Amino acid sequence: MLRSPEVPDCFYTDQPILISPNRPTPKHSLYLSNLDDQKFLRFSIKYLYLFRKPVSIDILKYSLSRLLVHYYPLAGRLRCSPEDDQKLEVECNGEGAVFAQAFMDLTADAFLQFSHKPNRSWRKFLYRVEAHSFLDIPPLVIQVTNLRCGGMIMCTAINHCLCDGIGTSQFLHAWAHLATKPHAELPINPYHCRHILKPRTPPQVTFTHHGFTNTAPNKENLNLNQYLQSQPLVPASLTFAPSRILHLKKQCTPSLKCTTFDIVAAHTWRSWVRSLDLSSSLTVKLLFSVNVRKKLKPEIPEGYYGNGFVLACAEAKVKDLVAANLNGGVKLVQAAKSSLDDDYVRSVVDLLDNKTVKTDLSTTLVISQWSKLGLEDLDFGEGRPLHMGPLSSDIYCLFLPEIGDFNAIRVLVSMPESAISKFEYYMNDISDREANAEANGHCN
Length: 444
Description:
The chain is an alpha+beta fold and about 450 residues long. About 25% of the residues lie in helices and about 25% in strands. It has eleven helices and 18 strands. Helix 1 crosses helix 3 and helix 6 crosses helix 8 (about 325-340). The two termini are about 40 Å apart.
């Protein structure tokens, strides 16, 4: 199996520095909502950008220092709340973001040849902060690596407890805006307050939330997540161009209208399950992020960069998901999405007030959508990126933008070596043979 080669070592030109807001900022603790500080999100979202031409380091530093005046919580530090050690908050102290500069003996074209499949050596593109725990890592860490050809790789690590995908895109575009227009105002002012997502008193859990659990794992039951984590994993990267997406959709029309996300998510989930040779009686789940900013009453204000998504949950027996046609999976995805109204979201927020509740990952595929967020359009003044993607690949599936084709989706997920070939086979198998079989009485 073709693997991407390791990249050379980085040479740091200087010691990393802290970039602080260039004006005084409010000093206080920022409340984080139950959607923000759930244990499932206690990590950093790590983006990797490749640019053909470098951007002036001085411009990047100065524009970042200006931006952190507006996004000052990202210059603060996470801590446990003094009132509740299970609850996180942000100490807004203006301490600053970590900014590192490095050089690598690599060309942009060489990187592009294997850019669709991250490997462990890519971690060299992000400065490693020595820390005892997750809380000790600054919420924003950036490394700019200049390449031999004159190109530039920028890697950003943004704490997920402070921002979701929409929030990170808003922040990065604001940074690029100030880098290219140093005297301009921000296109969108950040909305900091998270109290709009405070739980009710007392909490009112009015729905059954299948994507969460508060029971300890049973040793007799399969924990697929732990099994996958224990295996040597290799990334699979598959691009669905508009023509392939249309071909998949034709398997469901005219009887079932569906979005691109619906069809690709259902197809990916089904292919993932089929490739793992699971027991036919096992219940498997699909969790995927849904933006709920406009589903709440009142709606979450524009500029909100905190976690404004909830995980929708579809579930089925393996035998039903595998034996059914693609319509079955699509309907499950659509039903999971349609259940997310204001009452449901408020119930999730209240449920998460119980800190023993965790995201149920035991037999679950998680899909996070990075496409359609505009992440690939970032321009600091020297052109848009040649590549945009994650720093690493793991068992959580990403739907990524495809540079140069807004309507395409790149699916990236890591699988055990023993299953990767089957997964790629099933993902690529969108033949009319299956479509015709599904159309014979099953598409209703």
